[in-house]
Amino acid sequence: MINFPEKKIFEEVDNWIKNNKKVSLATVIQTWGSSPLGIGSRMVVNEDGNFLGSVSGGCIEAKVVEECISLMKNKKICKKIDFNVSNENAWEIGLACGGDISIYIEEIKQ
Amino acid sequence: MKIETIRQTLKNKSLKKEFALLTNLTNGESEIFFPGNNLSGMFSKYSEEIEKIFNLNKSGIIENSEIFVQTYKNPIKVIVVGAVDISIYLIDFAKNLNFEIIIIDPRGYFASKDKFPDTKIINKWPNEAFDEIETNSKTALVTLTHDSKIDDPALQYALKNKFFYIGALGSKKTHEKRCSRLMEAGFKKIELEKINGPIGIKLGGKSPSEIALSIISQLVSEKYKN
Fold first, then answer.
1. Is there a contact between B23 and B17 (Cβ–Cβ < 8 Å)?
2. Distance between CA B212 and CA A26 in Å, rounded?
3. What is the C-alpha separation between B64 and A99, in angstroms, rounded?
4. Is the Cβ–Cβ distance between A50 and A65 less than 8 Å?
5. What is the predicted pLDDT for the residue at A98?
6. CB pairs below 8 Å between A and B: how many?
């Protein structure tokens, strides 16, 4: 059996949904410079803040989890979030690699 | 994205289908693209561009649009000749590196199902075994038996069919002997340069798992060369 990169996280999404949890999917949709993970890297977050997968080398995951939870709370459909080193948040968030990435978050619909 | 799309993606992957997962970034709508099939709504406007990205095996946003395409192609097929210890570790590594391993070994006592669960094993001589495997220029061959009766016919097949990677286990000396045999069989010296012999990148390890690591590393490195 071969595990394609998103296999485990998609199976987890299915589990969470079956257990009536709200779930969001985060995807790297664009990168510039030396981003840690490539386009198409994915991460899933449920309403309790549990997550699986990654969209960077661990630099921005906490922020993405926070954004996903707030998306689900506010009943929004989707949101694009840009992370880059030149903005002031960068130190806080810590995208130390020097790249810019664009993350798309969306709630999984039944 | 709908949960149904995620379930479909898992299903299509297990059925070894090739497709792309499309997302309309403005509203989160999603659809699965299969080459040759028609798309609906907003996605149909970008059919050509979607097909282009898919054919290039790339993922990304279509220029001047809000359509994100994630391409899912089948993993590279790696044909391993020899159901030996190294093969067990190769399968282990390959599982999470997106390679599909098929084992050929005519020696039934080597290639038991217990040793290789979940792996396709063909208990035949290479020439017969290749009739059962679809191969193309994206296929890779790794020969591990050390036995020229088994390894050589597989190498000849891979050379003739222009496999993307060919590697043969054995020392430099063994490889020289192998090359002279293949030249006697009619292959030119330049063609034989395609064979990575000794196989793998130089890590220095000698145990079966370390050799498997050096082979899989070479496969990953070759995969990203083009």
1. no
2. 34
3. 22
4. no
5. 65
6. 67
Q: Rounded to a whole number, what is the distance in Å from the CA of A38 to chain B's nearest CA?
A: 9
pLDDT tens per residue across span A7-22: 999 999 999 999 999 9
Chain A residues in contact with B216 by the CB 8 A cut-off are: none
Name the CATH topology of B76-223. Rossmann fold (3.40.50)
Return the residue matching tokens 């094993």.
Answer: B121
Q: What is the pLDDT of residue A94?
A: 52
The whole-angstrom distance between B69's CA and the closest CA on chain A is 9
For A12-67, write each residue's pLDDT tens digit: 999 999 999 999 999 999 998 877 788 999 999 999 999 999 998 777 888 999 99
Q: Report the pLDDT value the prediction gives residue A89, as an integer from 0 to 100.
A: 53
Domain with CATH 3.40.50.720 in chain B: 76-223
> In a mutagenesis test of the A interface, which of B59, B69, B101, B116 is the best target, namely the one with the most A β-carbons within 10 Å?
B59
**Residue A80 and residue B6: Cβ atoms within 8 Å?**
no
Mean pLDDT over B166-182 rounds to 96
B3–A contact, CB cutoff 8 A: yes
DSSP secondary structure of B175-212: HHHHHHHHHHTT--HHHHTTEESS-S------SHHHHH
Contact B10 A14 (CB under 8 A): yes
pLDDT confidence bin for B135, thresholds 50/70/90: very high
